[in-house]
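R.M. (postdoc): so does anyone remember the format we settled on? I'll just put the structure tokens first.
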């Protein structure tokens, strides 16, 4: 539409996805068996829940060849199954007139599995996988990090395995063809594992490096009361999941083409000709421009104390005299502490939570903050 006056503007629209008239909703069929139980006048109780859920016609963004004029199209393709078990328990360990102690907890096991993609067979890696596709790119320094393989859990980390640092006069220098490898083959650089033994380090040497799906998640709460004083605490945790700590690409990989600060431990153990360590590459090393390495994968298991609250309820005899029904004074700490081996700021992060094709990645994620709360609750 042309402009009709000096104040009019021409607005352009670009459609970047091809329309799919046959698109439909995902279909899910689930089965569930549960048991609730209680004993000793509900002093002890809990639930056990066993489930199986199968989802068909998954909604997937599929890249299109440039000849179509579009970048991608949303299609229905593949199926996914989730089998799981959830258990919760609660109990009053001590219940007297002046003192009580209650404890509750839950644990959940979930086993996701990709059943099919509706894709033709294609060799991946050294030929151990035949139906798979890569997730979305994390950026120029990593490329795609997650692989989705039929018959396995979704979003596994996929990349290159390293074997220390190349030393001077290392036989590895003659074994690997530098012109066909992702990294520079010289002393002080990373040594990559040649998975298929063809003398080159390329995409065919990528392997599964970790799994962002946890073995189980859990939590527990406890509460103690003595007359008008109460103390409660809540905990939550995850066990068995891996994280891609992309920050290690800059903090633990010294290189001449990087201007980032590195960790103290890394600085003390940099490879040099007079200090041929096998831990970190030298300052003149060159890192692969787009590669996910096993050095970035860490155990993401943790136990977090999410809340501790101390409270005092004023006696009714005092409260009623001043015209109130109840007065409670409390102090609490949110995110009190965390127990983990993860070297990043916070293992309970997911930079790309909005994108299911980029799973379990910590890329400059802001950690959860600790807060202190003091309050007064008055009921009229």
């Amino acid at each position: 539409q042309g402009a009709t006056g000096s104040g009019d503007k021409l607005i352009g629209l670009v459609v970047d996805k091809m329309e799919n008239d046959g698109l439909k909703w995902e279909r899910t069929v689930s089965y569930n068996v549960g048991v609730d139980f209680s004993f000793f006048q509900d002093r002890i109780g809990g639930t056990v829940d066993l489930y199986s859920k199968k989802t068909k016609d998954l909604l997937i963004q599929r890249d299109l060849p440039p000849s179509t004029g579009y970048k991608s199209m949303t299609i229905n393709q593949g199926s996914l199954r989730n089998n799981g078990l959830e258990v919760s328990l609660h109990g009053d360990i001590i219940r007297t007139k002046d003192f009580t102690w209650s404890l509750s907890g839950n644990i959940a096991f979930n086993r996701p599995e990709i059943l099919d993609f509706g894709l033709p067979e294609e060799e991946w890696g050294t030929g151990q996988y035949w139906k798979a596709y890569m997730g979305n790119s994390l950026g120029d320094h990593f490329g795609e990090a997650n692989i989705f393989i039929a018959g396995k859990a979704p979003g596994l980390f996929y990349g290159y395995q390293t074997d220390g640092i190349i030393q001077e006069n290392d036989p590895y220098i003659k074994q690997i063809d530098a012109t066909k490898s992702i990294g520079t083959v010289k002393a002080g650089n990373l040594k990559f594992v040649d998975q298929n033994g063809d003398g080159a380090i390329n995409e065919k040497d990528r392997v599964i490096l970790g799994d962002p799906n946890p073995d189980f998640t859990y939590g527990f709460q406890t509460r103690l009361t003595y007359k008008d004083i109460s103390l409660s605490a809540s905990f939550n945790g995850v066990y068995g999941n891996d994280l891609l700590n992309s920050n290690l690409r800059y903090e633990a990989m010294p290189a001449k083409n990087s201007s980032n600060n590195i960790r103290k431990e890394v600085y003390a153990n940099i490879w040099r000709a007079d200090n041929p360590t096998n831990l970190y590459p030298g300052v003149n090393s060159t890192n692969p421009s787009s590669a996910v390495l096993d050095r970035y994968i860490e155990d993401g298991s943790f136990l977090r104390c999410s809340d501790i609250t101390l409270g005092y309820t004023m006696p009714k005899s005092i409260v009623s005299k001043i015209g109130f029904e109840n007065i409670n004074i409390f102090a609490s700490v949110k995110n009190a502490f965390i127990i983990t081996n993860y070297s990043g700021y916070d293992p309970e992060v997911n930079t790309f939570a909005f994108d299911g094709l980029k799973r379990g990645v910590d890329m400059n994620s802001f950690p959860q903050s600790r807060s202190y709360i003091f309050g007064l609750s008055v009921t009229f």
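R.M.: ...and that's the designed sequence above, right after the tokens. Also worth knowing: The first strand starts at residue 27 and ends at 39. The mean pLDDT is 88.
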